[in-house]
Amino acid sequence: MPLTLVTGPANSAKAGAVLGPLRDRLGEDPLLVVPAFEDVEHSQRELADRGAVFGARVLRSKALFRLIATRAGFTARVASELQSNLIVEEAVAAARLEVLAESATRPGFARAATRFVAELERSMVEPGRFTQALRAWAGDGPRRAYADEVADLYRRYRAGLEAAGLMDEDLFAWRALDALRRAPASWGATPLFVYGFDDFTPVELDALEVLARAAGADVTVSLPYEPGREAFRATARIREELAALADRVEHLEPSDDHYAPGSRSPLHTLERGLFQPGAREGEPGSAVRLHTAGGERAEAELCGAEVLRLLREGTAPGEIVVVLRDPAAYASTVEQVFAAYGIPYSIDRSVPLAHTSLGRGLLALLRCACLDGSASDLLAYLRTPGLLTEPGLADRLEADVRRGGVTTFAGARRVWEESVPAFGLEVIDRLAAAPGIPELLEALGRCLERLFAGPYRRSAPVLKGAELDDARAFRAADEAIRELRGVLHADPRVRLDPLRVHDMLSTLPVRAGETSQPDRVQVAAPQAIRARRFEAVLVCGLQEGEFPRTSAPEAFLPDADRRAIATASGLRLPMREQRLERERYLFYVCASRAERELVLSSRLCDEEGNPQARSFFVDDVLAVFPELEDTERRRSLSEVTWEPAQAPTAAEWERSVALRGPRRLPVSIASVSAPVARELLEARDTVSAGALEKYAGCPVRWLVEDVLRPGPVEPDSDAMVRGSLAHRVLELTYRRLRESTGARAVCPGNLARAEQIMREAMEEERDRYRVAATGARVLAAIRRLEHDLLVALRSEAEQDGVFEPEHLELRFGVEEGGYPAVEVADGVRVRGVIDRVDVWERYALVRDYKSGKVDTYKEASWVRERRLQAPLYMLVVEELLGLEAAGGLYTPLRGADRRSRGLVAAELAEHAGAGVHPRDHRESEPFAAGMERARNTIAGAAAGMRAGRLASCPDSCAYAGGCAHPSICRAEE
Questions:
Q1: C-beta separation of 509 from 351 below 8 A
Q2: Do 12 and 254 form a contact (C-beta atoms < 8 A)?
Q3: Is 556 helix (H, G, I), strand (E, B) or coil?
Q4: Alpha-carbon dihedral angle through residues 200, 206, 212, 218, given to the nearest 10 degrees
Q5: Which CATH number does the domain housing residue 278 bear?
Q6: Which of 102, 246, 394, 877 is 20 to 30 A from residue 466's alpha carbon, by CA?
């Protein structure tokens, strides 16, 4: 029976030449083979439109080979991609590699080897033939070792497949054809029609020949081709091979019948003139347009606006396609823009299993049970949707482990079981107790089932939208686990451990997003649209290096080596040097698929403003339409909104109008007005020194941190923990020094003892530092703090003052049995902790430790910097201890200048010692005035706190300036 080859350019009615005869033979159960899954559904709809609802089957090449095997009586277990990868990795690990040893350690080596062996099988090359060809090429020269290692990898891979009782897809197709050759009558008289392909692998060509010649089936193949056209140089070779097999070759002439009337002339002119030297120039009209954008986001927004216009004009979503050379690379940007614009779309992309919610939880469970699990892993497992009836429990655990500095799984588990004993983690123990990898995989499969079913238990839902992503993740993971178990069962020599299982599952591809349907705009690669036309085609990402895509040499045998192998042995392997011809053909496909409108989009720069070169394919279009560049639509990187008249959505119009309207500052935050809240504030009988200082700096910060008091999630900062540890160590040092020597102050005579006591206290209290650092950082931080405190003690020993530490960490109004709160102004009672009070006779010198520099803590800066702590504590000691305040000092615990800053009465400056900066001495009158200012400031702040008076003060809010809580305050700086 004959093989009929139908050729012609785009829009030459090749579909009619194939589908028409197919419809005429519906009684013979014909088969239609198309390239992609999307083409299957589209072809089924097109056949139905032509009246062929029953009788014809539409399938892809893979399904054709399965059908051939079934009819020829050939059976085999087909390896999945995961199983093939595993067997390749085993082959690489078992091979004695020397030349390839270093390359084999890299992560991408096994993937490249998998692609290479698949190419050999598609070319129907047996390991023995491949070995002979490589040895003929290499001879006994320096390439011999390399040739032997490459051939050995292929032999070991095929041996691994055989040991596992598997065949990969390409080998299965090859063997199915061999079976059909042995029993050609098994095919019957089923006619075969092949449409939409522009290239065939050697095994696919062999299938066409076997079906037509050996099995005697009627085979009709269409191929895009036109003699003398540059666009079809990529299909010329395959056309010659098919023509050699064909009994009849039918060439169709170009036609413009398929174009919309208003677009017929420009679109047909472009199809006929693209890539042709000296082509006739034409006018693009409104059928062909250019977009130029600054950055991917702007390009996607231009595209989205164009799609919305088409939809509003009545174009069906399924008749619009956005073409990208690599849709997965643009998936995130397209999803953001199209979702914001309300465009229904489909995009063919996949994500690793580890990036899905179900996969993240499953892999975290595996790490907790069998690997070095962390606290984050336990949290990821507990946050698997549906696992906890109260998801907030996981948030509480996260806060606890972060605040406690817990980083290990074991530590996080202890915290969890103490706080939520009712929810045990026995499933982790059962997984960890698996005696071997087969048992581990079986247990992991059961865990996967429970995790997937969790959100849907007892609800019998119909999954849709994002829920389908969970189902796809479950199916991919479940199949992968079963496949790994199958390989281990068939070949126990395969080496698997928990880490390898984890890594293989984590990179497992899972299809995401919606599938192509008539009610969705399709976002696709050029290869996916070869077999159909659309009313509107938008080709985006026309950049040099992207479309056309640059050619990458094959990792194992570049084209130069393949030519040499063909010369030496006669074995011809596919070449890759025709990449530009292939890219040119794919662009021709994009440019010829539109029936009504074609938009070509490129970028001037990337998102950072770096220049990007436009694809020279756009210049090829401009050679046909020179006027096209004058009408291009632009959107620059700086355009954050649209012109109001061009805004594609209501939300974008509102942004545009808001940007161009009058500038309106946000309303200032209002004072507390709710009666209940006012009553709560007025009922506060004491305030802390820290709260007063916060309120003086920024009332909103005080409201957030001292009234609302959101629970902390992160551990205390390094500086805060360091300061707390320093305070505690100094308190113990001075207290124990007094107990040990009877002396209150550090002097040259007891300095050695004070240093010893300080080191002992540091060793006792060092565990307090664990939340701020881990591992080697802890030791370094402890040693640094120890050095700073030693310098502080030595600096104090060198002072000649007479004041001695009397009160350490003096607490008032903060705990039962201690000193009461102190009233420092009319109705203002304060509470707090004073780091140290030095006493001499009837005078008290207040000291507040600071971990950093204290230059800005001088008395001259107290009003400007809103420093209230030292003057407040001076008032407290006078009221609480009955002593006269000699000064208030901020004492640095690090830095080159260890002199304290603040305020000291001039008449007592000599008694305070040389450790006080001389510029902070004040005579009695300025001293008293400073104290009175502090008292008034404190009274005013306390009154404002009780009244709930609020104001945004971003300049003095955070420690280094700026707003500390911008999401709450929303102050314009």
A1: yes
A2: yes
A3: coil
A4: -30
A5: 3.40.50.300
A6: 394
Return the structure tokens found at 704: 């957030």
In a shared domain, residues 854 and 817: yes
User: Is residue 909 domain-shared with residue 802, that is, in the same domain?
Assistant: yes
**What type of residue sits at position 553?**
P
Same domain, 43 and 9: yes
Instruction: Let me know: does 82 contact 131? Beta carbons within 8 Å.
Output: no
* Residue pLDDT, tens place only, 295-306: 999 999 999 999
Residue finishing a domain among 149, 167, 185: 167
d(C-alpha 123, C-alpha 167), whole Å? 15
Is the Cβ–Cβ distance between 891 and 906 less than 8 Å? Answer: no
For 533, 727, 964, 966, the CA distances from 312, given in Å and listed in that order, are 20, 70, 46, 40
Q: What tokens were used for 567?
A: 């010369």
Q: Tokens 């012609």 belong to which residue?
A: 8
Q: Both ends of the chain: CA-CA distance in Å?
A: 83
Note down the domain range covering 447. Answer: 351-512
Question: Does residue 493 sit in the same domain as residue 550?
Answer: no
Q: What is the CATH number of the domain that holds 864?
A: 3.90.320
Cis peptide bond prior to 611, omega within 30° of 0: no
Spacing of C-alpha 167 from chain mean position? 35
Report residue 454 as tokens.
């969790």
- Residue 253's CB: how many other CB atoms inside 10 A? 9
Q: What is the pLDDT of residue 771?
A: 47
Tokens of 651: 């939300």
**Residue 72 and residue 176 in contact, taking contact as beta carbons nearer than 8 Å:** yes
SS (HEC) of 795-818: HHHCCCCCCEEEEEEEEECCCCCC
Alpha-carbon distances, residue 357 vs 33, 115, 250, 466, 944 (angstroms): 37, 30, 53, 11, 49
Do 574 and 471 share a structural domain?
Answer: no
How many angstroms separate the CA atoms of 304 and 345, rounded? 11
Q: How far apart are CA 217 and CA 16, in angstroms?
A: 20
Within a domain: 340 = no
Residues 744 and 879 reside in one and the same domain: yes
DSSP code for 819: B
How many beta carbons lie within 10 A of that of residue 939, not counting itself?
16
> Does a cis peptide bond (omega within 30 degrees of 0) precede residue 21?
no
3-state secondary structure 516-552: CCCCCEEEECHHHHCCCCEEEEEECCCECEECCECCC
**Exposure letters 632-644 (e unless 16+ CB within 10 A, then b):** eeebebeeebbee
Collapsed DSSP state (helix, strand, coil) of residue 617: helix
Pick out the chain residues at pLDDT < 70: 1, 49-54, 577, 665-668, 768-778, 816-817, 960, 970-973
Residue type, 608: E
150 and 298 assigned to the same domain: no
Amino acid occupying residue 828: V
Last residue of a domain, which of 462, 478, 512? Answer: 512
For 682-691, what is each residue's pLDDT tens digit? 888 888 888 9
Q: How many domains does the chain have?
A: 5
The pLDDT score that the predictor gives to residue 577 is 64
Cα 777 to Cα 788: distance, rounded to the nearest angstrom? 16
Among residues 348, 305, 405, which one has the least CA distance to residue 712? 405
Under 8 Å between Cβ of 194 and 245: no
- State how far the Cα of 553 lies from the Cα of 116, in Å rounded to an integer: 12
The alpha-carbon radius of gyration of the chain (Å, integer) is: 39
Q: Based on the domain organization, do 768 and 863 belong to the same domain?
A: yes
- The answer as to whether 670 is a domain residue is no
Q: From the DSSP assignment, how many helices (H) and strands (E) are in the chain?
A: 37, 25
Q: Determine the pLDDT at residue 643.
A: 92
Residue 342 falls inside a structural domain? no
The verdict on residue 795 lying in a domain is: yes
Cα dihedral 14→18→20→21 (10° resolution): 140
> Are 913 and 803 spatial neighbours (Cβ–Cβ below 8 Å)?
yes
- Which among 917, 903, 771 has a CA at the least distance from the CA of 844? 903
Is residue 966 within 8 A of residue 853, CB to CB? The reply is no
